[in-house]
């Protein structure tokens, strides 16, 4: 059996890989502001399919906020021109997974290119970016975001865009995601990929594919 090609670029999923997210918290935040139930918020955003449209870039942030406000019967006058505070309220549901930072730092030391490949919307990405969490800021050279690309994982097109931005052959890209279907999409694109099950297991996987440049990968501090 031939060994896997050397990895030159690693893409991380965002949610449940670099940050933990709690949609119920977002629903509660918005429900309290709007004077409705969390179930009403869930119906207006997720069950309606509006969030998917937002994550595919088919709905602008202000228009998304207006449609949610209308569905919840909140006076549109409570929103500013950018759709705030609604967008921040529903986006305030993320917390950083700090245990991933040593993994990222060791990859940087190994000279591997790094990026983020995520199904996300403008509001969530903007909110996370403003937090300045080291685990998801200051190191990525290629942020491939569904709302900008107009496609969501596991569609083949988003992996093609990500490969072009990485600037390396498909077989030299590694991807980790908590959703098996997105890992399957990466494998179909010719990438190396693994389902994310925590920083420690990821370190073991990376030790296997980066042996020559990082033999002590699993000994990274805090991993």
UniProtKB/TrEMBL annotation:
Superkingdom as given in the UniProt entry: Bacteria
Key words, A-Z: Hydrolase
Pfam families assigned to the protein according to its UniProt record, in alphabetical order: Hydrolase
Entry protein name: Alpha-D-glucose-1-phosphate phosphatase YihX
Classification via SUPFAM superfamilies: HAD-like (SSF56784)
Enzyme Commission code: 3.1.3.-
Upper lineage: Bacteria, Pseudomonadati, Planctomycetota, Planctomycetia, Pirellulales
Encoding gene (name): yihX
CDD domains: HAD_sEH-N_like
GO molecular function, one term: hydrolase activity
Annotated organism of origin: Roseimaritima ulvae
PANTHER family reported in the protein's UniProt record: ALPHA-D-GLUCOSE 1-PHOSPHATE PHOSPHATASE, FLAVIN MONONUCLEOTIDE HYDROLASE 1, CHLOROPLATIC
